[in-house]
Amino acid sequence: MSVAVIQGASGSLGLALARHILQNTGLTVYALTHRPDSKVSDITDRILEGISDDAGKERLTVVDDVDIRNEKGLSKAAKLVEQREGADRIRLIACMAGVLHPEKSLSAIDLSKSIDQFQINTLGHLLTYKHFVPLIPNKRKFECLSTDWKDYQGEDPAQGLISSDSSLCWSMSARVGSISDNNRGGWYSYRASKAATNQIIRTLDHELINKNSSAVAVGYHPGTVITSFTKPVIGNDAVADPSKGKFEIDQAIEKMVGVMGQIKRDESKKWEGKCWDWKGERVEW
Ligand SMILES: NC(=O)c1ccc[n+]([C@@H]2O[C@H](COP(=O)([O-])OP(=O)(O)OC[C@H]3O[C@@H](n4cnc5c(N)ncnc54)[C@H](OP(=O)(O)O)[C@@H]3O)[C@@H](O)[C@H]2O)c1
Predict the structure, then answer these.
(1) Separation CA 183–CA 191 (nearest Å)
(2) Which end of the chain is more exposed for a tag (fewer CB within 10 A), N or C?
C-alpha cells in the first residue's frame, strides 16, 4: 500500500494530521513518536478518536521510541516500513516535531535548550529524511506503484491529499524562520532552527530532482495554532480568529491539507523547495 510517515505524531498537529489521513485517504499511516511503548495504546486511541471503521484502524501503526535526536529509532522505524510495505511505498513524509524555548534576549540563552531546538526542529527533520527518503519511489517506480491503485478502485489512495503524480517531503517550518520577515527580534534559537530547516528543505529538493525522485520538498507555516506548543506564549484563553491566522487544530489541518494538495513539480517550478503558509502564499527566506 501507499504509505504516509508522520514524525512528531504524538503532538497536536501531528496527531490531527494522522487522524485526517486515516479518515480521508486510503494511505497506510506510520505514526512515529519518541514516547515509550507504554504510551502507544494511548496515542493510538487518540489518533483513532472518531474513526469507527476497522479499515482505518488497520491502516495505523504507531512506532514508539523514535527520538529524532538520534538515528537508532529512525533507522529501526524505516526498516519496519520497508519490511512490511516494500521498498518504494512512501508517498508522504511529514516532519511535524518541534520544540520552542522562546528567549526574549541574549541573557535568556541557555545552550542546552538552543541545542535541543536545533536537534529536534532542524537536524531531526534532516535525519528523518535520511532514513525515509530512500523508501520514496523514483519516477519510474512511481508508475509501478500506481498499479496498486487498482485495489483502490483505480484511484490514487492519497485522494487529493497530495498530487496524484508525486510524493511529498513536508517539514513544519514557521514564519519566524524567515530572515526577511524578522521585524521584531527575540526567539534566537527557534528562529535560527527554522531558518536552517528551510535551507534543508531547499537542499533536499535539489537532491530529489537530481535523483529523479517522485517527491517534492517544501516547508510550511501553519499560522498560530492553539496547541500546548503555543499556549505558554499566547495564553490559555487564546481564541481562534482565522481572519488573523489564529486557528484551532482542526481549522489548521483543513488549511494545511488544502496547501498540501496543491504542491507539485511542474514547469513553472512554483512550489518546489520553498516555504508556504496557510494562505498558500510563499514565506520568503
Ligand atoms: N502551533 C503553532 O502555532 C505552530 C506555528 C508555527 C510552526 N509550528 C510547528 O509545527 C510543528 C507542530 O507543532 P504543534 O503545535 O503540534 O506542537 P506540539 O503539540 O508540541 O507537538 C510537537 C511534537 O514534537 C515531538 N517531539 C518533541 N521532541 C521530540 C524528539 N526528541 N523526538 C521526536 N519527537 C519529538 C513531540 O512529542 P511529545 O508530545 O511526545 O513530546 C510532539 O509530538 C512544530 O514543528 C512547530 O514548530 C507550530
Answers:
(1) 12
(2) C
Q: CA distances (Å), 158 to each of 4, 73, 129, 174, 234, in order?
A: 9, 26, 20, 25, 34
- pTM for this predicted structure: 0.97
Q: Let me know: does 26 contact 149? Beta carbons within 8 Å.
A: no
Query: Which bin fits 6, alpha (ψ -120 to 50), beta or left (φ > 0)?
Result: beta
> 217: closest CA among 205, 199, 209?
205
Strand-strand pairing, 167-172 and 215-221: parallel
| Residue environment code for 143-156, b if the CB has 16+ CB neighbours within 10 A, otherwise e | eebeeebeebeeeb
For 71-87, what is each residue's pLDDT tens digit? 999 999 999 999 999 99
Q: Ligand 1 pocket, 137 CB below 6 A?
A: no
- Spatial distance between the Cα atoms of 229 and 75, rounded to a whole number of angstroms: 27
Q: Is the CB of 203 under 6 A from ligand 1?
A: no
Does the beta carbon of 69 lie inside 6 Å of ligand 1? yes
- Report the separation in Å between the CA atom of 95 and the middle of ligand 1, taken as the mean of its atom positions: 9
> What type of residue is 280?
G
Residue range 152-179: average pLDDT? 93
Residue among 5, 7, 13 to mutate when testing ligand 1 (max atoms within 8 A of CB): 13
Domain 3-222+250-283 has CATH 3.10.450.50: no
Arithmetic mean of pLDDT, 177-192: 97
Mapping DSSP to helix (H, G, I), strand (E, B) and coil, where does residue 276 land?
strand
Task: Collect all residues with Cβ–Cβ distance below 8 Å to 243 and sequence separation of at least 6.
Answer: none
